[in-house]
Amino acid sequence: MHFLPRSSRIWKGDHVIGKRGSMGRRAIAARTAAAMALAIVSALSLGGSPRRASDSPYRPRPKAAFLDQYTVEFLRPGLAITINSASIGSDGTITVIYTVGDGAGNPLDLAGVYTPGVVSLSYVAAYIPNNAEQYVAYTTRSQTGTAGTYVNAGVDSGGALTQVGQGQYQYVFHTKAPANFDATATHTVAVYGNRNLTSFGLTTYRDSATYNFVPNGSAVTKTRQVVATSSCDSCHDQLSHHGGNRRGVEMCVMCHTPQSTDPVTGNTVDLKVMVHKIHMGSSLPSVQAGGHYVIGSTDYSTVVDPAGPQRCVMCHNPKSGAAQANADLTNPTRAACGACHDNVNFATGANHSGGIQTDDSQCSTCHIPQGTEDFDASIAGSHVVATDSSLLSGLNVAISGVTNTLAGQNPTVAFTVTDKNNNPVPLSNLGSISFTMAGPTSDYGYTSFGSDVTTPGYVSESATKANCTNSGCSYTFTHAVPANATGTYAIGVEARRTENILAGTPKAQSVTYGAKNQVVYFAVDSSTVAPRRQVVQISNCNNCHYELSLHGTLRNQTEYCVMCHNPSNTDISQRPKAAITAQRSLPPQGINFNLLVHRIHTGANLTAMGRDYTVIGFGGSVNDFNSVLFPPLTPGGQAGDTANCTLCHVNSSEQNLPLGKNAVVDPQGPINPDQPIAAACTGCHADNGSAVHALSQATSLGETCTVCHGSGAAFAVDQVHAQY
């Protein structure tokens, strides 16, 4: 299809003015869409080379990657907005010229007449005063709610749109800059919107673009970029909100300024305040005192930051390239700091050791960027998480070798224990050190290491009495590799220590922390060593969790987690001790790693599926995961998106279904034991309907899931999870 220019047409609202008379733009688009839909049916019947996600020019998880070449060329999926120029006339008239294209750079027709899909756009204009750091919006709107009426930053309406070339448009704002606007200040215009191709079986594509300029023609030297969008995306996948149309921090900061207030609650929606409060969530002093933090109709009081809100570097990443990446260290303010520390009253001095502060001029006097030690009043020091402290000696346990590894033998592990400076650490200085053995690596879970071993599929032994010399230590397992063992087995290590730091000072504290888990593999026969398949990697976990560490800091590597969280394991050993009496009488909860992680991340979506996921941990602790809100955002800007499997998975493991692996024990689930593929998939798809479907595809010979859902199949995992 060729793009036909309409440079002579101008439209306002929904009606085209020009050769087509008063026919509604939407009516034209609807008539054209019907014809296009018929054409697509014909195009699909032509076959051609299927396009896979791996060779797609579009974003990961694209629906278009699974269409044939001809259909893709017809539909031109995607939306890309590029602002070419902007200006403000002497009379305050704001004008922006921009280009709208598809995912491959081809021009689009906004009306959806000459190219498929209507494109709906909105426009924002704002400036940064020379004596300020944040935007002031020219485009505003009045909003009324239960808290009152407020004039907030918003979008322009009633402006004039003109097509000036193929895919190129000019928009003249209805809103004008005031007569005395500062032509020397940085100004920014934004264009955002969506392109709806859902009638063609695709999706609604969204994009945002911003453009900085100085009206008098000077170079732009002042911008607002405290946090880079890439920092947000590391956890949120793709930062977007308000239906998904407004994307990226550059877009957010134009409206979320001190001038804007939530009309429902009266809370400011200034970005630095709002984001701090949202990420603090359940940790806010006001929430812990029984209050709530609400914006509009959304209550953020239950939010738990997976990295911990003290780790400011997750957002304020000095390596992100953000223009003011160190602003959190160099420019402390009452608004920003008081957002998290919301029990501080700067007007009265309550809960503030610095007393009354009527402005921000003195903040940096006490709160310098970096002090001389952790936990001081400096900004970096006061936000140190205890286990991250530089004052800790450190702990490294390295396995240097394993001998006596054949079936029937008792393995001997050679290892060293050192601090962060490579100095030996006596075993007596450790709170615990243990080695875990499991196998075979083809799939853990159903190997018995002896009648005295109560842990299913693995054995763990304390090594606090290991033999140590100046050159290192060795520990010999009291349990042998099973006599009938074949293939590859694994041994992993966990250890932790407790240190007292800053003794004799007001900051004195005791800190318990663990060593990095190491896992080594060995053949128990004459076969080639084959490590356990890698499904996820810890660096992906740490994109959100920063430094994932569980079970009292003992376990911190997914390669080690799967040894205990295996298909046969449940919380049966702890459930009788549950702190909540009602939990004690319930069946055990399955804790196989794929079931556990999928259910935890599905979290807040479980209740609607009629499923509960509560695990009883050590000491009877009750771990209710039914309110977990997974941070990745859907294309529509809602948290809880579990469809992007690649956020966790590596090696295309989400597509290579675990056919033939061990059955998964799931006493509280609808199927017990559950077949391995069904257990993985119904971890997220936890409704009974999905369980019925999974059960219908399994026989005594195994599962047939790969016929429809295997890589390259009609309903392959990557295809059914595609959203973009």
Give a nutshell description of this structure.
Helix content is 18%, strand content 23%.
Structural notes for this entry:
- With 724 residues, the protein is of the alpha+beta class.
- The chain contains 18 helices and 29 strands.
- A six-stranded antiparallel sheet has the order 2-1-9-10-4-3, with no helix packed on it. Strands 19, 20, 23, 24 and 25 form a five-stranded antiparallel sheet that branches.
Features:
724 residues, alpha+beta, 4 domains, six-stranded antiparallel beta sheet, five-stranded antiparallel beta sheet, globular
**Count of helical segments?**
18
* Overall average residue pLDDT: 91
Reported for the largest beta sheet, the result is: 6 strands, antiparallel
Number of extended strands: 29
Approximate strand percentage = 15-25%
What share of the residues lie within helices? Answer: 10-25%
What is the topology, as strand order, of the major beta sheet? 2-1-9-10-4-3
Radius of gyration: 30 Å
Measure the end-to-end span: 23 Å
Q: How many structural domains are formed by the residues?
A: 4
